[in-house]
Structure prediction request, 409 residues.
Amino acid sequence: MNRLLATTVLTLFASSALSVSASAQNGSNGSVSEEHKPNAATMACLEAPTRDCAFSAALHTVIGEDFGVERAKVLIGVARSMIETGKDKEALQTLKLALDEARAVHLSLVTQEKIRSIAPLMSTAGDVAGALALTQELTNENVRDGVLIHIAAGAYKRGDIAAGRLALKEMQNRGRAFWQELTLLTEAPKAALAHVKLADLEKKVSAMARPYRHYRGLVQLAIIADRMGNPGDRNQYLAQADDLFPTVIGLQVRADVTAFRLRNMFDAGMSDSFIDASYKLALLHGSRLHAKSELASFSEKVGPVEAARGNLDAALKRLSYFKAVDAKAQYLASLKASKDESILAAQVREVLTEVKDVQGAYERDGIRLDLLECAFANKDIQLARTIVEAMEDDDNQALGLAVMAPMLD
Prediction:
């Protein structure tokens, strides 16, 4: 999107229009009402999608939308893609606009729901202070803690551990905050770990009474040590974890902690030898599970690793553990294939055909947006186009185009 268009749209939205409940958009048969069917701007862009037309069509839809909550939704999607394309400053402006639109509804619950999306993106774009200020409006403690975790994640990924720790410090659940710090440190840029004190973290891990938690903590300490360039500490922590493992009781618990070990090592970029050994360990304990719910939980951790390491067939076989269409879509959204992308795309298209049997247009579009995340992760423009074309609501189609934008020229 060129600067002139961005400035024009932001100026147009300096004041809010009237706002009513989005539920009024529903037709009596579960379809969208006539005025909320895909519009000419989004449909024209889909014929020959480009980044400029994707942003322009999304913002055109925002301008024509009467519902503040829907305007906010699309603007949040636009801001996300601005961040993806390196336009942090423009993204922050757009997020402030989205917040204004959410506030215009004059319903605290609506504003709080949008803050759950806006605050983490603000952090990712570099405004951690602004993101933290917004969390003061969240009245549910668990929800607020969850948003603080995402704010911290944005800071850690930028290498700003100090800012991330400020977010974690505000969490009410201190145990959860510590676990999140360990996880975020395993994925933070290596250069940002120079001043991390492993000994302080180790004291807290050693104090954990439950063996499975102690085991997980030792694994994460090993990963952090590896990223810090301390192979001696890494090997020591892994040896301690292996010695502790026999005290971890329960088939499901063992499957969970070994899958956790694999996923954390993979996400942290550890060497193949460690990932291979952890994969074998996870498969051993995962093979002892029988309930589909347990197998689905195990697959959520292991499947993305299999897909990314060239074993897409194994990852897709796990789809059978997910019964509901939305659960299938969310699992597929987590898969990024290193090869055989066409097989993954075919599976996504198959699930896309199942979506039509779901009751409610907005529920159907929500599942399509999940499937779109798979296309985005795999940079499959044609698949993304197919999914966005299937959207039934104009705002959802505009949001889909906004999500597509970073893939386009």
In short: Residues 68-84 form the longest helix (17 residues). The radius of gyration is 22 Å. Residues 1-6, 12-26 have pLDDT under 50 and may be disordered. The CA atoms of residues 208 and 214 lie 5 Å apart.
